[in-house]
Structure formats: structure tokens, C-alpha cells
Specification:
Elements lengths: L8 E6 L2 H12 L2 E6 L2 E6 L2 E7 L25 E5 L4 H10 L9 E5 L2 E9 L5 E6 L4
């Protein structure tokens, strides 16, 4: 028996890598990295999201690396939740100041560590983004 202890990274499929990198760095404060030619990642905390463009998804890359692991990679099919220390009202104000339309007001949600306050928006591909704040102890 094994026990998973943490996420290392996730992969999102996108139509336009630059639009995605701009959104996540500008709106969410992540750090973009190009780790191979046309291969991008977004870093935050000790995690990262790899960014995979739909036009670059062969079953196997020319250099022998495995291409797409997902059976049906589709831009806009992800639902991601990120934790922040910012107050939910500050999250709403920040999104609006960047021209990102929130799709909810502040709502209560149950996360991995218990109840939290969340705000939802969408990234450039239509992925659902949840920005959550846990109560301070």
C-alpha cells in the first residue's frame, strides 16, 4: 500500500500559452517559466502548473517524451481551486481592477481543510478558477 502525501504539479490544456501566462501571473501572482522551448510552467508556493497548448499534443514527442497523458485534453475543462491569505472582498476588488469578471460573490465552500470563503472567475480558456480563503486561527 502507498499513501500519496502531496500534489507536485498539474497540467492544463490551453489554446494560447501567452494569454494563459499573462492571466496567471497578472491576476494570481504566479511566476512563469519556460523550461524547454515552448514548454511553460506556472509556479506558486511549492507547486506548479504545466501549460500544454492544444496544437502541441502528439501521443509522443519527437525527442521521445510522452506527450499528452489525458485522453481528451480540452482547453477550458479544468476546475482549479487556489488558496490565498487575502480577504475575499480584496480578491473581488483585485479581479475587478484587472478587468476579470468574477462569476460569483463571496460564497462558503468546503475545502480540503474545512470551510472556506471562495470567489470564482474564469481564465482565458474558460477554466473555472476558485480563489479561497480559510479562516485565520
Amino acid at each position: 500500500m502507498i499513501a500519496v502525501k502531496a500534489f507536485d504539479h498539474a497540467v492544463i490544456t490551453v489554446a494560447d500559452a501567452q494569454a494563459t501566462l499573462d492571466f496567471y501571473t497578472r491576476a494570481l501572482g504566479m511566476q512563469a517559466e519556460e523550461f524547454n522551448p515552448n514548454r511553460f510552467a506556472l509556479h506558486f508556493g511549492s507547486q506548479k502548473i504545466n501549460v500544454q497548448v492544444t496544437t502541441e499534443i502528439p501521443d509522443q514527442m519527437a525527442d521521445g517524451r510522452i506527450g499528452s497523458i489525458a485522453a481528451h485534453p480540452t482547453p477550458g475543462s479544468a476546475d482549479l481551486c487556489f488558496v490565498t491569505d487575502a480577504e475575499p472582498e480584496a480578491v473581488l476588488a483585485h479581479l475587478r481592477s484587472l478587468g476579470v469578471a468574477p462569476i460569483t460573490a463571496v460564497v462558503d465552500r468546503k475545502g480540503a481543510r474545512g470551510w472556506m470563503k471562495s470567489v470564482y472567475c474564469r481564465d482565458p480558456d474558460g477554466n473555472l478558477i476558485e480563489l479561497s480563503t480559510y479562516p485565520r486561527d
